[in-house]
Each structure stands twice: as structure tokens, then as C-alpha cells.
Task: structure prediction
Amino acid sequence: MELVKLTHENIDKEHICCAISNNKDIQVISKKNWLKDRLDEGLVFLKGNVRGKHYNFQTTEEAIRKASRNA
Result:
């Protein structure tokens, strides 16, 4: 399964889950703005390139540690 890293550039185009899918809904806008703030703080949001609830949160430190183990 391909993993997609959520970024400021793709957050409005990527399907996160069915609860965060309508970009015109004020609650969805609020959730995506909250996620954007967390991305600025170093959150790494990876999701499977599929429809549904397939995602994984990591802090920057966790992502670096994991990447260094797999190198």
C-alpha cells in the first residue's frame, strides 16, 4: 500500500476519512486547520492511499527514529 504524507499543499485534496471529507463543512474546515497547526509543530501524518480510515500519526522525532532504524 502506498503511503501519502499529509502536507499543507495536499491537505485539502487528500481524503483523510469519511468524517473529514466535505471541505465546505465548517467542522471539517476547523479540523483541517487544527491539523495544519499540528503539522507546523512537527506532526507527521501518514495515510494509506485508499478510501477509509487508514492513517498513522507520528511526531517528527518518532519519524526520524523510525527512518534511521530502516536505513
About this structure: The first helix runs from residue 26 to 40. The beta strands are 3-5, 44-48, 55-58.
